[in-house]
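Batch manifest line 291
LIGAND: zinc ion
JOB: complex structure
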Amino acid sequence: MNSALRKRLGLLLTGASLTALLGVNTPAEAAQNPYERGPAPTEASVTAARGPFAIAQVSVPSGSGTGFNNGTIYYPTDTSQGTFGAVAVIPGFISPQLVIQWLGPRLASQGFVVFTLDTNGGGDLPESRGSQLLAALDYLTTRSTVRDRVDPTRLAVMGHSMGGGGSLWAAQNRPSLQAAIPLAPWELDTTWEGVKVPTMIIGGQTDAIAPVGSMSIPQYTSMTAAPEKAYLEMKNGNHFAPVSENSTTAKYALSWLKRFVDDDTRYDQFLCPAPAPNSAISQYRDTCPND
Ligand code: 9J6
Ligand code: ZN
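JOB STATUS: finished
ARTIFACT:
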């Protein structure tokens, strides 16, 4: 080997060492998303009644915190993987926690801390329900018995009807939220240009209480500042279709939470490209990059 070649090889080796030193990884060495929880999803796993995580629950009686009433926290018992993202869920007009409570174990078993709520009052308007959602999240991350299990930077809101309207208010008032999922949102205001949170609205095609033509669709259309958004319309669905225990709401809400609370792109396959109309979905609108 002549000295010129040896010098060139030396430079190459130095270059390789520098690359290693600077932490420039090859794709095979790229760090895994630190928020990813649970195995790679399948159609069966996202529609299953329960996910892979063992869960526990704790009751939060009235008076435990300020700004919300009472509720139940469902959480994965696993503490070996770090913290989990969290979602607070609130029901609609004169409706108890029971209406939305199925989302607690269903989503917690997939790797989220879920706080299902009763409202302060049955007639609370959507804006009030929004502030109750945010107060519940504040309690969850700072005072609850599971606060150490929750990542306070990765929070989301859900709600049904007036609670869906509340989810829009919460998202508009707290842009640091990672996701919002209003279910059959009832809210007369259809100007949500201020929402900067990734938001999925799930409506019912035949809803006569919160008609999608005057609520969900104009709400969806108005969210021009949301980084990503989606509108899923349940075929032949009435006002309670999106909030009844069903695998369409479960699959798409889970995928939205995984994608935006956990930044888990393994769930992209369920969101983009948009699902075609089928026996459960009458229409689906979104902002997928290539749709
Ligand atoms: O029409 C009204 O004033 C009440 C709309 C209620 C929507 C709602 O939250 O329904 C949940 C059962
Ligand atoms: Zn994110």
